[in-house]
Amino acid sequence: MSKTYYEIMRFEVKTDQRRFSEYFSEIFLGTILLFFGILLFNLLLSLQKISRYYETDYLCKLILVEKSSHNFKKLERIINQKNKQKIWDFCKLISR
Length: 96
Prior knowledge:
- By secondary structure, the protein is mainly α.
- The protein has one domain.
- Helices cover 79% and strands 0% of the residues.
- α2 (17-65) runs antiparallel to α3.
- The termini are far apart.
């Protein structure tokens, strides 16, 4: 018998294991990205609220010390209040 008869022949069978792992990794990566995206969005909204609060507090303190129309305009934009008396009352309430 020839030498080739004693050699081992290899048979490769393609399975779906590779496709499954690629599909699973894509789903996992998408889920992680979505989670961090939502987390970042939530953090940005929280920072916006905190920033608005401190800006309102700062402008109210300025109005109590110096009643400039520029500060009133900024504050009226933030708290959506057009009446200066209501803005004044709001600032007195916050400064307590």
